[in-house]
Write a structure and sequence with these properties.
Blueprint lengths: L1 E4 L2 E4 L11 H7 L8 H7 L11 H22 L2 E8 L1 H15 L16 H5 L10 E8 L5 E6 L2 E6 H8 L2
Antiparallel strand pairs: 1-2, 3-4, 4-5, 5-6
């Protein structure tokens, strides 16, 4: 879709890998007493997801595969490449928590915070959560060092080795 802004024309592509709309199906499978903390259960759940219900790792895998395809474009164009990814909290939370786990550094939570780390309210609360609503993650790649991706989110810049994304893509 192309949109006209004050700065000019902007093209926005929709991508299934950036959507978590089917996660509501996971929520609906939970007993009532687990629904308030559904994100924690989704994060911890190692079930083989059905075709209709994406698991936490499924979402991270889909996103990583999509991002790696976008990154491959720099190999043919050279220079710098910026990729802006917008989505709602659950998908962004899944990707960011997975990066925290792999890199051992804080992006939205403290990796060593234990049980309270995966608190849906701390992450998604509309007024106080880290990922309040629709979020943007900006990835930057430079052809001079294509093995490191810079992630810019929440006023932080995180260096991500491309091998981490490859690992996530093969989970």
């Amino acid at each position: 879709h192309e949109y006209l802004t004050q700065a000019g024309s902007v093209t926005i592509e929709t991508e299934d890998a950036l959507s978590e709309q089917d996660i509501v199906l996971y929520y609906d499978t939970l007993p009532e007493e687990k629904r308030a903390t559904w994100f924690k259960y989704w994060y911890e759940d190692d079930h083989e997801s059905s075709k209709d219900i994406p698991g936490f790792r499924d979402v991270v895998r889909s996103f990583s595969v999509w991002l790696l395809k976008e990154i491959d474009a720099i190999k043919t164009t050279g220079g710098n490449l910026d990729i802006d990814a917008f989505s709602h909290g659950p998908l962004m939370g899944a990707v960011l928590l997975s990066l925290e786990d792999e890199l051992g550094q804080e992006i939205i939570t403290f990796p060593s915070a234990g049980e309270s780390r995966i608190d849906r309210t701390k992450i998604f609360d509309l007024y106080s959560g880290q990922l309040k609503a629709l979020q943007n993650m900006k990835f930057s790649i430079n052809s001079d060092n294509p093995n490191i991706i810079k992630l810019n989110i929440l006023d932080k810049i995180v260096s991500i080795p491309i091998d981490v994304l490859r690992k996530f893509a093969s989970i």
